[in-house]
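so the lab meeting is tmrw and i was supposed to have these ready like two days ago... anyway. pasting both below. for each one the top line is the aa sequence and the line under it is the structure tokens. i havent really looked at them closely yet so no promises
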Amino acid sequence: MFSEDQWNKIATIPDGTSNVVMVAECNSTGYKWGGFHTSGTGWKRAPNERVFRMAFVGTGTNGECCESGLYSKPDNSGARTGGFFPSNVANYSPSYLTAWGPKVEWPGAGGVHPAITMVLAADGSVRPASDSIDWPVWVQINARQDGVATPNF
């Protein structure tokens, strides 16, 4: 539903709003080492390996901050050279990539609930998606116009 370079109207969802994920939860540390094109195969990152997404704040290309020099250091001793975001953390624009299923890698979805990731469908309903959801099904429920209606996720 949301991407870094376009927006969509309800009319552009021919698969049905109850069959398309609009938003999925993500946690503040994310996951790592999960298999590409899989679901639920990653390990939770340690607190010192944190990643985050800022809601409605574009972070530049591929998570690289584009606001260098615009914000002050916390002690007011000058401008931050790395932008608004803390150093040594990965940041990403407010979206996730469906190339990874839930709880696989940090650019993908994955919340704090055991065995599930909560999703908001385009019709406004909130429901769980299993962390073991087949990756092709995950891709289908994240596509707004693939011709496949997959209501049971």
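ok protien two:
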Amino acid sequence: MKLVFIPPYANIYAAQPMWEQELISRMKQKGQLEGVDIDIAEGYPIEHNAETRNEEFAAIVNLGMIKKVKEYSEMGQYDAIIIGGTSEPGFFATQMVSKIPVVYSLHSAVHVASLIGERFSIIHLTDPGCLQIRHWVQNHGLNHKLVAVRPTGYTSSFLHKFTRTYKPEERTKIPEGKKFVEDVVARCKEAVDNDRVDSLVFECPAIQMFEDEIKPRLNDSGYGEIQLVYSFPAAVEMARTMVNMGLTQAPRAYPSDSLRAKPQFR
């Protein structure tokens, strides 16, 4: 099975090692990618100041993502497409234009959390991103199971620079890395104690890269029964499942003018 991952802001960090490359390597080491190859897509141009992530920026990113999904879905080389990003760029449009399954990391993770439990919270970065996540979970029909989206207060720009500067084995030896892990663990404990959740979702790839440091700390603190859902592996498994079951996004759910079996009413 061959999958392709399209980063949400592919050209912004084009000169930097992408988080997903490390996550893919981790999954390979754990034997989670047997029979699966994952390529990372080439960047697409964004003519905008990436530091000002307003609605104009989102619209430009959405257009770039839609074009990229259409391009890769028509290559005939891939079985499914994976897309990351809190803003889930081009979500509805990409479901319409792609000829192969398209899965999003957040979308996949919250459905997994919904499958295994009744109440989950999401640990993320800054408050604007948390609000975006809340809106998307509402759109996905799972707001009744999402209790809270808790920010850690770190920006993606800081984490990109930090994880690019230090190797995995060095990160928690640096004061900034130690504090990051401590803050994430603190938000997790708050979610368990105050939100009364049965599972936690980690959407940000940077948080997922610290899995080996976060999970043992939670276990040692008595939170071992809380299920941890990592969005990138969830998306890979969702893509694999759709391919193996011969499924793609339902045309009636994401209709275009070419829809043949048109419903009589909505």
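from a quick look at the 2nd one: The chain has two domains: 2-104+233-244, 107-231. The two ends are 36 Å apart (CA to CA). will dig more after coffe
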